Amino acid sequence: MRRTIDWADGAIVIIDQTALPAEFRLLELRTVGELVDAIKRLAVRGAPALGAAGALGVALAARLGGDVRADAELIAHARPTAVNLAWGVGRALAKLDEGEDAVLAEALAVLDEDERLNKTASAHAAEVVLAECPRRPLRLLSHCNAGRLATVGWGSALGVVWHLHERGLVEEVLVDETRPLLQGARLTAWELAQAGVPYRVQPDGAAAAAMARGLVDCVLVGADRIAANGDVANKIGTYGLAIAARHHGVPFVVVAPSSTVDGKLADGAEIVIEERDARELTEYAGVPVTPPDARVFNPAFDVTPHSLVTAVVTEHGRLTP
């Protein structure tokens, strides 16, 4: 499978994640405005992939001329919760005084590192899962999408599945559909099907019931920002999933590259939580599904306290808060 995001002929090339699974479509982004729009409407998404987008966005701005630092600010603030976006912008921007070629080289280095580090992090996490879960083969539960599509080319939490599947250790993956944009049903299920991994899609509200019935050996999720104490911001619904996992004695493992750790934040209370457009809930495929005056609470993420997390795993192994 090609990279989720890459650079070709002076443009940023992404897999359009809004088109999947119906259509595999590539988009060429040739302006900073096009990149910011793609980030905001989730054509490119996932914390590690956003780090790559941030770095490549600065490289694109440098090639186009103009006020590169102002463009970098626009990119960095396109989505507020995932720390990787601003991190990627900062990595590339640090090379600006050395010229546009140096900026592009740094951005491409970010892409190469992301593939390598996520593969390493997920390999470490696979060993954590095997140590925590004696049953074989394993029944895993995934929330949102933390696979190839959320990274440059391998995956964080879903990368664990690739490692375990290669060893014949996965019975199936239960895939939370992940409201409101169905990243699990649309993206994770598509990735698992492409890889030949057995899976079943379930509504988010069924996760606790699946654990109660003994259908889950381990919960695997990614992260968009991790505070210094180990609190984890991830797709909305993760917190409730962690509570259910703790109640049922199911290990809850978070997998992310170290660029997702924000050591400047003492705990999760300081993480800014993005709120999405109300129409993501009030409409389905453009058709209203609520009364016209319905008010909406639509946070994109929540924060899971570190006390509910079995392990946070990066490319360095288990994270020590």
TrEMBL record:
Class of this enzyme: isomerase
Look up the domain of life of the source. Bacteria
The pathway that the record names for this protein is: Amino-acid biosynthesis; L-methionine biosynthesis via salvage pathway; L-methionine from S-methyl-5-thio-alpha-D-ribose 1-phosphate: step 1/6
Q: What is its EC number?
A: 5.3.1.23
- Site (Transition state stabilizer) found at 144
> Which molecular function terms from Gene Ontology are attached?
S-methyl-5-thioribose-1-phosphate isomerase activity
Which InterPro entries does UniProt cross-reference here? Answer: IF-2B-related (IPR000649), IF-M1Pi (IPR005251), IF_2B-like_C (IPR042529), Initiation_fac_2B_a/b/d (IPR011559), M1Pi_N (IPR027363), NagB/RpiA_transferase-like (IPR037171)
Keywords per UniProt: Amino-acid biosynthesis, Isomerase, Methionine biosynthesis
Q: Does the keyword Isomerase apply?
A: yes
Q: Which residues bind substrate?
A: 45-47, 79, 183, 234-235
Active-site residues (renumbered): 224
Please list the reactions this protein catalyses: 5-(methylsulfanyl)-alpha-D-ribose 1-phosphate = 5-(methylsulfanyl)-D-ribulose 1-phosphate
**Which SUPFAM superfamilies would you find in this protein's record?**
NagB/RpiA/CoA transferase-like (SSF100950)
Xref: NCBIfam families: eIF-2B_rel, PRK05720.1, salvage_mtnA
Role description: Catalyzes the interconversion of methylthioribose-1-phosphate (MTR-1-P) into methylthioribulose-1-phosphate (MTRu-1-P).
Q: What's the family?
A: Belongs to the EIF-2B alpha/beta/delta subunits family. MtnA subfamily.
Q: What is this protein called?
A: Methylthioribose-1-phosphate isomerase
Q: Which organism is it from?
A: Amycolatopsis nalaikhensis
Q: Which gene encodes it?
A: mtnA
